[in-house]
Design a protein that fits this description.
Two copies of one chain form a homodimer. The first copy, chain A, is an alpha/beta fold. Chain A has one domain: Rossmann fold, CATH 3.40.50. Helix content of chain A is 39%, strand content 17%. Chain A has a seven-stranded parallel beta sheet with strand order 3-2-1-4-5-7-12, with helices on both faces. A two-stranded parallel ribbon of chain A has the order 6-15. The longest helix of chain A is centred in the middle third of the chain and has 24 residues, at 161-184. Chains A, B: It holds the Pfam family Epimerase.
Amino acid sequence: MTEKKRGKALNLGESRILIAGAASLVGSHTADLLLEAGAREVILLDNFAFGSMDAIAHLVGNPRIKVLRADLMRLPDLLAATENVDGVVHLAAYMTLGFAQTPWQAVDVNIRGAQNMLEACRVNKVGKVVFASSNAVYGYGSGIHGALVENGPFHSEGAPPAAILYGVSKIMGEQLCRQYHQKHGLDYVVLRYSTVYGERQHYRAANSLYIMETYDRVKKGERPLLPGDGKDTKHFVHVSDVARANVAALGSTATDIAVNVSGPEPITTGELVKLVLDYCKSDLQPEVKPDPPDTVRLTSGGAFHIPHELAGREIGWQPEVRMKEGVERLLAWREAQEAG
Amino acid sequence: MTEKKRGKALNLGESRILIAGAASLVGSHTADLLLEAGAREVILLDNFAFGSMDAIAHLVGNPRIKVLRADLMRLPDLLAATENVDGVVHLAAYMTLGFAQTPWQAVDVNIRGAQNMLEACRVNKVGKVVFASSNAVYGYGSGIHGALVENGPFHSEGAPPAAILYGVSKIMGEQLCRQYHQKHGLDYVVLRYSTVYGERQHYRAANSLYIMETYDRVKKGERPLLPGDGKDTKHFVHVSDVARANVAALGSTATDIAVNVSGPEPITTGELVKLVLDYCKSDLQPEVKPDPPDTVRLTSGGAFHIPHELAGREIGWQPEVRMKEGVERLLAWREAQEAG
């Protein structure tokens, strides 16, 4: 057995943790868990371009919470923000839609923004960085099938430019982490989230819209739409599991490694629609909707799944929330919101 | 047979062409060929951070040549430089060594610099952009073997961060071209150069140093060094062939496509050392030099080659200079330099 490289493990009960891109689904759940773990202070950094005060409203006023409006493109802001900080969870990023609509900002934030944050962490000797990456580093298209393991290549055949730009921007962020580790000894863990869903879901992530759109149609009495044959694979992960992975990575001795963070099992789009219909106690039949001829879809080459065993070994994490429970929790939250 | 997409072909005899990163090996040879083809004006843009006036000294004074000191990071400079320009050859980039030593500048130039240039081309309705990419978009390590075809994935297992950063920066440049084509109709051809070598060789590209270093040792009467077993594959392309590919791409109707630009055949490091020894009429025996244990080398998973048939079909180009001739030309130039 080869010796694993070991780095700094934070004692969360004594730590000040900064979350970048905190006013978000993953950010707010991570802050909740850090407070539970006894963190001395949790700094919620966001420029509120996409982040919303709604996502963190329940945290504001807590004496251990500090909300900080700052922008990743201003290194001096980050140098100030990371003073005496023990750990950083770097979530802030544009996704595929951002690379399609606002590619200048997306390049800024995902690459230079990550670089600025790593530089600030180096200067202020931050003990541990958790960098939020994505299964987008495996790419799209015909090459995507079977197990997407951590040392696999990036596929792009047939994918639209914005999706490829997003994927390689995440590869770049990961490699900037590696470079800071090699050059400066900065400890980091890359977590490659699969499609995140859950309570406080926003409407910005293309993939996770699926559950919400189906629910909205069923509530209006319309048949849910099933693009293709309903056999497309999705591999979601519930936001509470993602938050636990972030906290586990901060508290583990793992360093200089990238691990998948995925849910217990993949699901087909057909099964997913069925879960929503079951939740709604609806007997509507899904309507198969062929794609218009010029549609660009982020399809795979066949059934795939995203193993998370490496995360188990490296940071002692495994997912807990199965799709049925997760969809129920998300939709119950949605109903409570509507009931207002 | 499917219809190929067709775009703007420049009539070179009536064109003004801008070369970005022109004070370079590829830039100067491309300018030579454009003058031969009768171009009205050739604008040699460089910030001279790495570019050298030596490389373009033979062109200065030609009334059809304009030397322009400008920086890719200043969009206003590029907006001015591309006014009334018909075609752009975008060469300016940092390579792997740059991503290791100066990652901030490398990110700037390879990503934002490319984006700035594409934006300037959009605004000034430039007819055709040739974007210099690299076989680095196929990556490194165990995944690299056999034919590296244009729709292949990016491999990174075992590669150092700087090499991966360089490779994905080129993927990003390519995809920004695609995005400008899809959004704004900008015509472009991506040329993925393999390892360029030839007269006016600089000492900045890690791979092509091989020929020069072997030559230097032999000239000093020292046995040439052969890392590993001499069976590593290299696939070079002579700079005169690269220059012809640039000109062919400008003059072709090809658009929205990426093609390999590689030499007639790959070569092993052992065969390459032999070519240099033959040129020097030396009977020195290569010395096999095992790598030190912590060496990070950009190796492949086995013999590979980079097919260029797609370039033949798309831009009517194929390489002409075989390794023996190319090495002889390079070393004859080197000897003439030394003779001064």
